[in-house]
Amino acid sequence: MVRLKTKLSLFNLLSKLVFTALFLIFLPWIIERINLRQVDNDLIQKREKTIDLISSIGIEPFISSDTTGSFGSFNILKEEYISLELIPEGGERNEILVSDRTIEDEVITYRVLNYTFMADGETYLLEIGKSLETITEGRKSIYRIILGFLAFIILITLVTDLQYTRIILKPLKRITDKLREISSPSKFDRAPVRTSTFDFATLDKALIDLMSKIEESFRKEKEITVNISHELMTPVSVMRSKLENILIQKDIGEETAIRIEESLQTLQRLQRLVNSLLMIARIESHQYLLEEKAEVRSILAEITGELRPVTADKEIDLKEEYEDDGGFGPANRPLLFSMFYNVVNNAVKNTFQGGTITIKIQRVSGILRVVISDTGRGMDQEQLSALFSRFSSRRGNDENGTGIGLAITKSIADLHQIGISVSSSPGNGTEFIFIFPENS
Amino acid sequence: MNVLIVEDELSLAREIASFLKSENFLCDLAFTGNEASEKIAVNLYDFVLLDLGLPDYNGLDLIREARRDGSETSFIIITARGAVEDKVKGLDLGADDYLAKPFALVELLSRINAVARRKFNIVSQDISLDHFTMQVQARKLICNETEVDLTKKEFDLLHYLVLNRGRVLTRRQLYEHIWGNILDDQYDSNFIDVHIKNLRRKLNLHAPSPWLETVRGVGYRVSSD
After folding, report:
1. A318 in helix, strand or coil?
2. What pTM did the predictor assign?
3. Contact call for A400 and B187, based on CB within 8 A
């Protein structure tokens, strides 16, 4: 991605270059036009002077019978010439044009003014010419000066443009920095960015308002989950205390005690269900913040530490193959713990005596992966497709599970942008692969 | 010891009181924040069990008031709101412990006793179990002057059963005490059975342990004599 500042500067530079190029293309033509106009004015002035002269001293000094009706004069460098000619009547001309003249074997391009006038009853043609060679020379030097000047101007404006864009875009940079720094709306810096640009002020204000609104709706959602939790847990709590009080009475007898314990277990299932649903709601409404760096290795080691007595009891071989520490962040460690725990514990539950569970941390071309595989009973296609949905009664007769553990795992993975792929077939065990986001 | 139970859910307050009375506590009840505020100001309680979700009062304010008035009452927060912030705020204000509803009554008792031991600097006495001696301070189990090699969890499990001597503890009560609520969804009664099995095996290497009883269909118990 390109920064706005860079884009603006590039555009500035490009547009300047384009306009300069256009200007340079048309410049010779413009200069020529200006020059010709000047030459023309000059020629017209000279004509006026000559006509004035002729009307005051008469035509004779220029043309007499011995000059055979024509007069010509040019200066030494052939830059200019003037000629007078007697012409037959009826050929009136009054024009300025470019034409080549051969003077002493040299072809020179002249701007020529033709003008006919009457004197002593005869028609004369006045021709005044000015060489264009000198003009071309002058044009070249003007061209150079203009080029140099343009290059200088472009350089100067480019530098000032850059500076100015930087200064003018500073508030925008501050706004984007503000956005980049935060991990949740509550962390957004509410102090308005100082700017005299209306658009930035509007943007900043809109963002601040938006963040407040988002935070408010987060707060409401949180309040709702807290309230639901309170409303549901209080009656459960009452029931539990009552049942426990009955259970500690000395004289209730074995059968009653067992029934009470069973009621307590049922109650616990209810509690666990509510807690799990609340947990998913909290995860999905981003009430858990991702703001620490977690080490997957230590999380997995903690989990295997917890489960090792159980695997040892079932004679399950629990293998740990860690190629990497699995540093990952930003993350929420307790959540990652639950995410992996659910999967490993499932593997333990579904692996037969003497089976194997393998946990691997790998880094495949920079991408962190955790593989948890077992030699357990596996799942068929139908079970597999319903694996992450809540309350899918997968793996059948599990009294303790609410069938929601893997739904929690999925929502935690989603929160951390961790991809999960599962492969399994009945009798051949199950393999979970967690693929961590690239930037971890 | 004097306990004030501040809880707007009447039947829960009564159950807690009934349980604590059987453990020889003197219990007083307050169903609203105002009532609690008055009672705390007038009476000297060793403990206040405080529900944060009171209809008329922010429970945390009761702790603030009590601390401002220089009261040395210990507060144990019991709440069903389950928000981590409540826990942090409560403990910051000087609450001594925090229990999420629903909790086991034996767990509440164990927390009260733990706070009391800290408060009154009570040194836990060694406990004798047939051929075994539990050195609570040193966290060791000794048999014939040899230490029984227990993991931290096995010791905690046994200690909890010993503290509740003569009372059956359900697997869940044991589980919650050792692991807390963190792994609630994945709680597995098999866990406790495995740990008890390992514990028994280790004990029996030193001496028979008939005092660690399995109560069919309910849980485990350390017999009272």
Report:
1. strand
2. 0.68
3. yes
